[in-house]
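Late entry, 2'-deoxycytidine-5'-monophosphate complex.
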Amino acid sequence: MSINRGLKIAIDGPAGSGKSTVAREVARRLKLTYLDTGAMYRAITLKLLRENVDLTDTGQVEKVLERTVILTGPDERIYLDGEDVTAEIRTPQVNAAVSRVAELTAIRRKLVQQQKEIAAYAEGIVMEGRDISSRVMPDATHKFYLDAALTERARRRMREQHSKGLFLSFESVYNEIKERDRIDSERADSPLEIAPGVQVIDTTDLPVEEVVERVLQAVNRHRT
Ligand code: DC
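Prediction complete; structure with ligand written out below:
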């Protein structure tokens, strides 16, 4: 039996804070399941965009939700009704719409329920998102919030886009992240916030490896 069995690590933070890279590496080092909950919000956003759903029409949103199956697979693949949409959920169109979708209570209710179930059945997990410490895994064994200055987060997001051959202007990336921060923090249902008892790490001037080490050290210091 793995000594890491039972570890439930929550990592929250805004876009570009480094949480995906860090959460993925922490999961790899501790041999735990890794779940990127943002990818699930992105997958449902893709479906609503494809079907041209009016987001203010709750009835229509709920109908689409009823016939939607989002599954996460090995190697961080994500499936929307059986279709592999791993690449398509990272397009600028989805980036621009996802915060609006993540505001909707019907959407959050369904995805949070699914995420809670994944956490309950996993032997040990690293889950990243916006509301993991507060809503999805309030019983997490370890809780972190990664943050970084907005300009640095925009720079990172831009580099990531460049590596995929997407050459957007710095200004457009900066403004998109700023707007996403605003919507994610101001929404009524489970806003992005620092929950009590969470360890905050400012990653602005830290290399990824250093952040990973800090998380691992904290996990090793406080094993429940
Ligand atoms: O982490 P990301 O950029 O892939 O997240 C995409 C969007 O989904 C982001 O704008 C906020 C939302 N989200 C959320 O509301 N709750 C989560 N647990 C994860 C993501």
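Strands lie at 8-12, 33-36, 70-72, 78-80, 83-84, 125-129, 142-147, 199-202. Will revisit in the morning.
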